[in-house]
Amino acid sequence: MARELAAVGVRCYTLQDLRKYPRTDRQAIPVFVDWLTNLDAKIPGPETLHRDGIRTLLLRNLTDSAVQGDSSAIAAVIAQLRRQPPLNGGTQWTAGIALVQIARPDDYSEILELFGQLTADEARAALLSYLGRSKSREAIQIAIDELANPGTRQWAIQALILAEADGTRPLIARYANDENEQVRRWVKTAMKQLE
To answer: Model-level pTM?
Structure first.
């Protein structure tokens, strides 16, 4: 990978080196997408901590506004979330966050469909803010449904705030004494921001 990056003018010895810069270098994006798309062929064999670490670093390098709207990057990240067997929860979270950062409003239908296919709380939680920003009735209903799930609750509240779903205040208020401190903080924020 270092040779491929050097060929497009991006010098690094490790992927971690690239995280030192405030933005992803645009010339590196096609290299990252190619590696993410073909990672199983480039590092053959069973899933290992090494390959998972490379996958996670590639996803982190694609989590950048410089990548926003790049259809090949969006497709590569969605493919990671659809992988079978699924990636571990932490890697799914990282992929979901990358998708939220780079997806366009035009990708809403595909992300909505993807959300319905996901079973891991990490990936679903990550995508809730994207859905909330859409402010659609479907997205608001999904966030309301996710309030019942302790694994996605705080992100569901955040999505309802982003969606400006004012009528959901009583539903959110039920969790004012939740055992999770982050949920309680989001409830307070919702009570201030939603009418």
So the answer is: 0.89
